Amino acid sequence: MNDPIAFKIIDAAEWRNALAEGVYDGSDVDIADGFIHLSTAEQLPGTAGKHYAGRAGLMLLSVDLTALGDTVLWEPSRGGALFPHIHGPLPTRAVTRARPCSISADGGFVFEDGAA
């Protein structure tokens, strides 16, 4: 739980809107759940495979958790694993990297910049 970086996969159009607004309020699922779901580096492959397999036009956001302060809570999810959740909006200034990507049918990342 001490890693200062977590990840969020979002639709590229949602990211463009967030940049224009300066804040990301979350996906429909996030809004329904009352917080923005993030994943650690270790949890990211499972999240990609479970929720985004076969999708294109996505962005992988690297989020600086230290910039979010008390809005980040580590809460149990799948199988009791603790996931970082943002209780509030995600300011775009807390995103340290945004990479265009798609997720293959088997849940693997394919980055448009060709880097792993």
Supply database-style keywords:
116 residues; alpha+beta; ADP-ribosylation fold; 4-stranded antiparallel β-sheet; 3 helices; 9 strands; 36% strand
Question: Could you state the CATH homologous superfamily?
Answer: Protein of unknown function DUF952
Choose one word for the global shape: globular
Overall tally of domains: 1
Question: Unreliable stretches, pLDDT < 50, 5 or more residues?
Answer: none
Task: Profile the largest sheet.
Answer: 4 strands, antiparallel
User: Percent range for helical residues?
Assistant: 10-25%
What spatial order of strands do you see in the largest sheet? Answer: 1-4-8-9
CATH fold-level label: ADP-ribosylation fold
What's the number of extended β-strand segments?
Answer: 9
Category by helix and strand content: alpha+beta
Highest-level CATH class: Alpha Beta
| C-alpha end-to-end distance | 24 Å
The second-level CATH architecture is Alpha-Beta Barrel
Please state the CA-atom Rg, rounded to the nearest Å. Answer: 13 Å
- Total helical elements: 3
Q: How large is the share of residues in beta strands?
A: 35-45%
- Summed over residues and divided by their number, the pLDDT gives a mean of 93
H/E series: EHEHEHEEEEEE
